[in-house]
């Protein structure tokens, strides 16, 4: 949870990010020029004009000239730091990500150029600092510049809190909040109507009550089996979340689990026991969808306070048909989120 | 799940590892000597004699001379690779971990020495490769040498599978397996009897039926609140796991949740809503213990197929006193593990 992922598919920020990722390999519509907008940043930047938008982009040559204003997040697990900085008179967000090791560098890595400094020895365990060749230890760097307050806030890690949502809190706070918010799920309806992403569908059961469409999640490259991630979107409209599931939905859930797993095994080779099939609460959009990830994948949002295995959900509804209406359910909120504010207004104590 | 952690505190390998960690700052009981056991590894090693064990330890000066035999694991998330190698005629395990960014290096990092190579630009998003000063990009390296097959197997990532454990499978496979295995939990009894680690106890409720001891988990440094990790060990002996919990244990679980959270708030400042309080199934040792981690910490083993929030456990037992005897419970097994073999022998289909 050091590195919260934006799971939303609506939301302007997410859409912008998605666009960046999609365009990552298509090359920039930019052209080098000799203009320079440097102020107090000597010998560091090259100005580039974006012809389409007539704005001057800046290409930096070193990290010199950035004044560090604050650390927005720092993940010791994932080896990533995000910094808010100023360069000249403009704000920037700088994201530094250490790169994974790849197999193709091993022959360069196991060489005389990898110097070891011994730090301690205990029995057969030797501990060292190893300095690699510079080319083997480059850091993936993203510079958002110029950055607005919105960009900076998007990358700033916020404290978050566990909520124990009783049925009363759901009825008096969460449900009214959901009903008053205008969550745009037109893109879901486009998929269900085959208007968009039809070529991405892996499997469909067309039954309006118990059917669903299975397709790769946007975060997945569609190829790497270790990181397999698909999502099943149910045809029935009106099931907002886990809270709405009752005994009548057992056939739907059973179908998703069985047919979805079979379709994945057929296409990608992973068996049912190599899959994690689960529902988020709270979800990122309020139309029932079920996540399928490779069990080997440390996917975002699989922690116990957020994810509910479909097999367990079926078991719980089987035990008590109104389990998800009667139970206290956990979920997390970020400080400052609208739902967090609503809970505070209604006297919830964090 | 790319990086399975060894959560076990019993087991010889884990004990050895723990010893290494405990002794990390106390300095090795070794002495440099001019002996050399190098074979085919020129100018690379320094032999060191461990006086207590009369064995010759090797200190390596570079990564040259290691023949890479196989990759035991490679985590793109955590930027860690573990390699099985041969040096001379002996086996070794080499663990390379990229280091987290720390705040104290930022002034060195944002300097002319951090060279940027522009890879692409899309609107305000610039993507670069950044080559840092060598001292800023050292890699934490652990060399296990000489390594036995047992060491190599310990670090080898194995496929793992989700098991849906019905009550029948628990009774016919899991329980007999547990009862026939000699899990050594003397160290747990030492803690409960105040014979060991007494100075590490944060809180104790001495009640023999509903009491527990709360102390920092060995994996925690005891200081960094973002990674806070404590464990509550119950005084009552004989509760092997989640499967044994019934309505009679609600007072115990409620106490752990309330008193444990209060003790943590008092000592470390995190409130109840900033904590994740959960039980593992399967646990790493079969004496009931409850994990407390900072909600912000992406702790190992918090995924939905492994961890059960105590609040949800209390709710489930409240709904049905024998919920954990009657339900199908998920857990994961690694290929080759004893329990995995037992399940296969008994006809379980993965």
TrEMBL record, chains A, B:
One of its GO terms (molecular function) is 5'-(N(7)-methyl 5'-triphosphoguanosine)-[mRNA] diphosphatase activity. It is an enzyme of class 3 (hydrolase). Its EC number is 3.6.1.59. One of its GO terms (cellular component) is nucleus. This is m7GpppX diphosphatase. The lineage of its organism: Eukaryota, Metazoa, Ecdysozoa, Arthropoda, Hexapoda. Pfam families: DcpS, DcpS_C. Keywords: Acetylation, Cytoplasm, Hydrolase, mRNA processing, mRNA splicing, Nucleus, Phosphoprotein. GO terms for biological process: deadenylation-dependent decapping of nuclear-transcribed mRNA; mRNA processing; RNA splicing. Decapping scavenger enzyme that catalyzes the cleavage of a residual cap structure following the degradation of mRNAs by the 3'->5' exosome-mediated mRNA decay pathway. SUPFAM superfamilies: HIT-like, mRNA decapping enzyme DcpS N-terminal domain. Gene3D superfamilies: HIT-like, Scavenger mRNA decapping enzyme, N-terminal domain. The keyword Hydrolase applies. Residues 1-45 are annotated as: Disordered.
């Amino acid at each position: 949870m050091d590195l919260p992922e934006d799971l939303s598919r609506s939301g302007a920020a997410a859409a912008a990010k998605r666009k960046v990722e999609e365009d990552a390999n298509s090359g920039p519509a930019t052209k080098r020029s000799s203009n320079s907008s440097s102020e107090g940043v000597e010998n560091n930047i090259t100005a580039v004009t974006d012809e389409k938008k007539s704005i001057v982009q800046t290409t930096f040559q070193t990290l010199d000239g950035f004044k560090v204003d604050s650390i927005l997040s720092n993940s010791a697990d994932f080896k990533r730091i995000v910094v808010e900085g100023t360069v000249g008179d403009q704000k920037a967000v700088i994201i530094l990500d250490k790169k994974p090791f790849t197999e193709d560098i091993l022959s360069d890595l196991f060489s005389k150029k990898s110097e070891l400094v011994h730090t301690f020895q205990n029995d057969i365990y030797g501990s060292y600092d190893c300095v690699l060749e510079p080319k083997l230890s480059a850091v993936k760097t993203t510079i958002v510049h110029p950055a607005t307050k919105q960009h900076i806030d998007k990358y700033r890690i916020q404290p978050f809190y566990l909520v124990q949502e009783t049925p009363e809190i759901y009825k008096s706070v969460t449900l009214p909040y959901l009903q008053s918010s205008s969550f745009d799920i037109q893109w879901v309806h486009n998929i269900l109507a085959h208007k968009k992403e039809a070529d991405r569908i892996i499997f469909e059961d067309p039954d309006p009550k118990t059917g669903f469409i299975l397709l790769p999640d946007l975060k997945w490259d569609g190829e790497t089996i270790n990181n397999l991630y698909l999502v099943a979107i149910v045809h029935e409209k009106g099931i907002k979340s886990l809270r709405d599931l009752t005994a009548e939905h057992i056939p739907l859930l059973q179908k998703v689990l069985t047919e979805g797993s079979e379709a994945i095994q057929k296409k990608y080779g992973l068996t049912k026991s190599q899959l994690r099939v689960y529902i988020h609460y709270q979800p990122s959009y309020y139309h029932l969808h079920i996540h399928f990830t490779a069990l080997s994948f440390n996917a975002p949002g699989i922690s116990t306070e957020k994810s509910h295995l479909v097999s367990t959900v079926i078991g719980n509804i089987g035990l008590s048909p109104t389990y998800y209406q009667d139970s206290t359910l956990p979920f997390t909120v970020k400080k400052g989120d609208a739902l967090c504010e609503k809970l505070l207004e209604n006297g919830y104590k964090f």
